Amino acid sequence: MTQEYTLELPGGRTLSYARNGSPSSSTLVIFFHGVFGVGDAANPSAVLTAKKVHFVAPTLPGWGNSSPVPGTVPYHIGLAADMAALIKHLYPDDSNLKLYVGGGSYGTIPAQMLYGASFDIFPPGRYLAGCLVLAPFSPLRYHKGYSKTMTTSNYISIGPPSQIIPFRLLQRLIVVGIGGKLKTEEKAEKFIRETLFDNMEEEELAAFKKWRETQGRAEGEVERNMAKNVVKSVSKTWEGFMQVADVAHSDWGFRPDTLDDDHVKRPIFVVASAGDTLAPDDMARWLVATYKNAVLKSITGGHLASLFHLEEIWSEFLVDEV
Question: Residue 9 forms beta bridges with which residues?
């Protein structure tokens, strides 16, 4: 894990983030983590380094050391305010700023929120040049039939039952069920292996091994690092997790099919795999069919497949950066 930085926000709130690359670069990439994650900028991408990109990975509200969005504020508005404050902190005066946003899995929701945000709510959006979403989720309030390709566990945890059953009872039961599995790094690593790695097909396992060797990672290193992030993500509060289904179903601040020309002129690069059971491929295809300037890249594998093709993905996404 890289060094964690903390930004003090109004109202006594804090925002944690990690970063790598060149802080003086006017090209900024903000990348959001998924469920049970924190901002992590370890192992910088060779492509981003070569392009002299400043890579910043915020910890989302309610996870790790980042304060939750106040209950009286819609999530997309609170997120935009936090990210605008972070960008202002990092770039107090840079009219040449070129901003890219991205995320993986659940992190694709905040990435899309910033992509489509009104410039009044998110002023740095005027500098936004593109959005990258890996194993993405679609806005559930507009994607009719989104639940048809969900697994049973996903249908229960973030599908219709999560919104029908009151008082977040389902979320509370899930916390009771998995909370003990995430208390230590050893238990969290076992949970990660069972959830993500043990279900990989041979082709994806081979891709993982090749990627790990190319990146110089020791066997088990990736799983251990992920486990550290998982434990840290819920070490202070479970509020981030409790909000996941509500955020997915919430008003994101825009409709993908009605964005104006100032927004859709920025491309959105969608990466998905047909074998992904956590973020169904159907959601990625809905995004590509609905956003006016979206491109789909399909890869083989499951939920983690994009990780093993990340250098290639960065090269294609940032093709205009030299």
Answer: 13
The set of residues, in sequence order, having a beta carbon less than 8 Å from that of 319 and lying 6+ positions away, is none
Would you tell me how many other CB atoms lie within 10 Å of the CB of residue 147?
Answer: 16
- HSE toward the beta carbon, residue 183, CA cutoff 13 A: 7
Q: Could you list the pLDDT tens digit for every one of the 322 residues in the chain? A: 679 999 999 999 999 999 999 999 999 999 999 999 999 999 999 999 999 999 999 999 999 999 999 989 999 999 999 999 999 999 998 789 999 999 999 999 999 999 999 999 999 999 999 999 999 999 999 999 999 999 999 999 999 999 999 999 999 999 999 999 999 999 999 999 999 999 898 889 999 999 999 999 999 999 999 999 999 999 999 999 999 999 999 999 999 999 999 999 999 999 999 899 999 999 999 999 999 999 999 999 999 999 999 999 999 999 988 7
Helix and strand totals (H; E) in the chain: 13, 8
**C-alpha span between 108 and 106 (Å, rounded):** 5
CA gyration radius, the chain? 18
Q: CA 191, CA 317: separation in Å to the nearest integer?
A: 32
The answer to whether the beta carbons of residues 68 and 61 sit under 8 Å apart is: yes
Establish how many alpha carbons lie within 13 A of residue 179's alpha carbon, considering only the half-sphere containing its beta carbon: 14
Q: Which residue has the tokens 């040449």?
A: 96
Mapped onto helix, strand or coil, the DSSP state of residue 259 is: coil
Please give the backbone phi and psi of residue 8, each rounded to the nearest 5 degrees, phi first.
-80, 130
- Show Cβ contacts of residue 180 under 8 Å, excluding neighbours closer than 6 positions: 187
CB atoms under 10 Å from CB of 11, counted, come to 8
Tokens of 216: 């110089």
- First-to-last C-alpha distance (Å) of the chain: 28
C-beta of residue 259 within 8 angstroms of C-beta of residue 188: no
Tell me if 247 sits within 8 A of 109, measured CB to CB: yes
Pairwise CA distance, residues 106 & 113, whole Å = 12
